[in-house]
Amino acid sequence: MAVFILSIISCTFAIMSSKRLFLFLFGIVSVIGVKAQYYIQCEDTCNHIHGLDMSHYQGDVWWEKVAENSNHKLNYVYLKATEGGTRIDQRYLENIAAAQRCGMNVGSYHFYRPTVPQVEQLRNFRAQCRPQDQDLIPMVDVETTSGLSSYALRDSLQKFLVLMTREYGVRPLVYTYTNFYNRHLMGALDDYKLFIAQYTTREPELKDGRDIFAWQYTGKGRINGVNGYVDKSRLMGRHSMREIRFPKRRN
Prior knowledge:
Blueprint (H helix, E strand, L loop, with lengths): L1 H40 L8 E5 L8 H5 L6 E10 L3 E2 L3 H10 L4 E6 L6 H11 L10 E3 L8 H19 L4 E5 H8 L8 E4 L16 E8 L8 E6 L16
Parallel strand pairs: 1-2, 2-4, 4-5, 5-6, 6-7, 7-8
Antiparallel strand pairs: 1-9, 2-3, 8-9
Helix pairs in contact: 4-5
């Protein structure tokens, strides 16, 4: 009888331990799930102004589906147009036409190559991006030194930004990563709005305390109309779409 009772007690403790283990593991999975939801789909749970940036890497895009994602609070999309002095994103022209046809606010960006002459890069971008076709101010993506020192990189970039400003009549946004800015660009972009990439749940902060206009918070977002990952971002603080509307002019 004593052995039988001990067996029952042992089984009871084993069941209780299993339940506790299950609850513990369920709790961990739930917490991870909540964090993953914020990391991947922040716009589902917040009131920020959100947007995308796209290029040929997304392949075929069903812009009608993308534009229908009202629950995603999408207010803008930046499309890669050009890179360096000669490269053109193979999907740019069809993407901008389709996105605007579907009623989206569209801007264009140039991937900057610091050792390529600035005039050549501006000519490349301007050939694709006519001012009258833009809804949003242009953006310059800088994330490589191309072997230059920080001083030489800042000098090169500033010359290009001046040319862009003269050509389009507005100062472009500057896109870069938190660490890249802190290491190479501090003090060089005080007159320009910053679009900062940092793929964490923690909001980015720059070493010099500069204000951040927009934060690209994931490179692994999902959205209807795109197969695979997409870069997602949101405006920071009290910033609004009004600040990046491109002033229409006749050319």
